[in-house]
Please model this.
Amino acid sequence: SQQGEEDPQALSIQEGENATMNCSYKTSINNLQWYRQNSGRGLVHLILIRSNEREKHSGRLRVTLDTSKKSSSLLITASRAADTASYFCATDGGSNYKLTFGKGTLLTVNP
Amino acid sequence: ETGVTQTPRHLVMGMTNKKSLKCEQHLGHNAMYWYKQSAKKPLELMFVYNFKEQTENNSVPSRFSPECPNSSHLFLHLHTLQPEDSALYLCASSQDQGRGPTDTQYFGPGTRLTVL
Model:
């Protein structure tokens, strides 16, 4: 069954604004990862947050994890046109080698 | 993306053709994966290889046949495909630490497959 579910499905903002995407999941996890995909390309890993962590930063990215609500958020600050991409959350439910991906949020940053 | 390469990048084939997709990882990882990405659907895990052994086969039709001759190379052999198999096929690799949480996966650029 599908694990991660991103929200919103699509988001359009102006350059310089912040973008927030959310991910909800159903079962307990070991870690949650965020990936980015430019149109028709492979996925690029952005950040991994473990189940015992609540917040993590990487450059302009901030990820939070609330295991009680089974949700995570990805915040991109001071967005740029180059941030235009699809963003996916992926959860590790404990089975070896298996990440379960959501359908993604399509972010468009307008110059 | 340069750590994991995939060829060809685009492939058009008829339903009676036989073709193969190739993936190579230059990261020294011990696990490799095939995913299928169709429009409006979540990424679907197809096959997993760890230490060259297939550890996962997510009920994939037999017209898809994986091969992992060593820990750096992964193939997906295709035969008698259907138009609904048209999709982006992504290869990924990771360093498995043994039993425990799944770590970061590194993806190739994908092969865009069109079945006529």
In short: The two ends of chain A are 38 Å apart (CA to CA).
